[in-house]
Design a protein that fits this description.
By secondary structure, the protein is of the alpha+beta class. The protein folds into 2 domains: about 60 residues, Orthogonal Bundle (Arc Repressor Mutant, subunit A); about 160 residues, 3-Layer(aba) Sandwich (Chorismate lyase). About 30% of the residues lie in helices and about 35% in strands. The strands form 3 sheets. The chain has a 6-stranded antiparallel sheet with strand order 4-5-6-9-8-7. Strands 1-2 form a two-stranded antiparallel sheet. Helix 1 crosses helix 3. The termini are far apart.
């Protein structure tokens, strides 16, 4: 049990910063473990003998540092350490999480036929307005939502893929192992964006939260595009790493 304490400002450090430091130390030591809910504002007010405004300022700073997250309607929770994912080869989410020692799961949100806009058509090398399958999923690691995926498949491929249990079957596995479409290479574009309402609701984060958006087109043999994806990764939960070689001069 965390004991009550009274803070003073005699050392020149603002009171909210002292509360922030005390809670950060408990997170670092494991006393407040990853995934654990932070004590309520009322309990923190009683513990530190501080005003609600001071407590909230301390919590806001912990959120800004990525040490805690506010989950709408649930409370404030200690975050899990960021996952570092290498961008060195073409792999799927499930494969990446297994390598990192995490347990991957998926939650299917929607699957439907839509018409290809200019960007989708260009990626899949089809005319604008062509029907394609759009699949929306949340991808989780150890039960924590990590990414919201929009996958676009040519209609003849999507018809096959959506007949499977997409909560369980990774699409890459289906393409390669069930439908004989080996994935040879992919093009990537990565940019920093903010979560809109749709993405925020899917990942249970705040609207405007930082997001990594990866646009990926995967190709089978003969440079045939078979899968175009928009992958929205939580900026507070993952970082990407790669290793580059200098071109010979």
């Amino acid at each position: 049990m965390m004991s009550a304490m009274t803070l003073t400002d005699t050392n020149g450090t603002p009171l909210y910063a002292q509360i922030e430091a005390a809670l950060a130390a408990e997170i670092s030591s494991g006393q407040l473990a990853a995934g654990v809910q932070l004590p309520s504002e009322e309990r923190l007010i009683a513990r530190f003998h501080m005003s609600r405004t001071t407590i909230r300022k301390a919590i806001d700073n912990l959120v800004a540092r990525g040490l805690v997250e506010i989950r709408r309607g649930k409370g404030t929770f200690v975050t899990h350490p960021k996952i570092t994912q290498a961008l060195t080869e073409l792999t799927g989410f499930a494969e990446d999480m297994v390598v990192l020692g995490r347990h991957p799961t998926s939650r299917l949100l929607d699957k439907r036929i839509v018409t290809a806009d200019e960007k989708i058509a260009q990626a899949l090398q089809i005319p604008v307005g062509t029907q394609v399958y759009r699949i929306e999923r949340v991808r989780l690691a150890d039960g924590i939502p990590m990414s919201f995926d929009e996958t676009y498949l040519p209609l003849e491929i999507g018809d096959k893929v959506v007949s499977n249990n997409l909560d369980v079957e990774p699409i890459f596995d289906l393409l390669e192992n069930k439908y004989a479409l080996p994935l040879v290479e992919a093009s990537y574009q990565l940019e920093a964006v903010i979560a809109d309402l749709h993405v925020a609701q899917a990942l249970n984060i705040a609207i405007g939260a930082p997001i990594f958006l990866i646009e990926r087109t995967s190709y089978s043999t003969g440079e045939r595009p078979v899968d175009y994806e928009k992958l929205y990764y939580r900026g507070d939960s993952i970082r990407f790493a790669t290793r580059l070689s200098r071109r010979s001069r």
